[in-house]
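[[Sequence with tokens]]
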Amino acid sequence: MREGRRRRRRCPACGWIFYDNPVPAAGAVIVRGGRLLLGRRARPPYAGMWDTPGGFIEAGEAPERALRRELREELGATVRRMRWAGGAADHYGRGGFPLLSLLFWVTLAPGPLRPADDVTELQWFAVDRLPFRKIAFASTRRLLRGLFGDGRRSREPTRS
């Protein structure tokens, strides 16, 4: 079946249309002193590459709540403040399912950070030297370029 320019799968028996909607994920843009925190992915897709801390949003879970949960699991961290940063469509790996990446500026409560769950390592990168070629998802690279441009400016959020 075609709707506009999109081709959709449809059940021949009942007519149900499969829309192939994206799966939402929330990520944290954590900046301190002009440095961005990235985590090294432990699992495919893109195992070993850098990514913003975060993960998938569960059914019925608000994006902010999901991100708080993921940051506890991946960093052992508690969120102090959170604010919208941007969103972009992608795929979960080459040929993977559709993904909707939602990024938030995050300020963490004081305390040590430890990589856990899906993260093998944490590293702070100067925003003027982000490892774009080693960042896992195209959507994350696009969003970070939009937030930091060519890296000459560090747009940490102002306090709300």
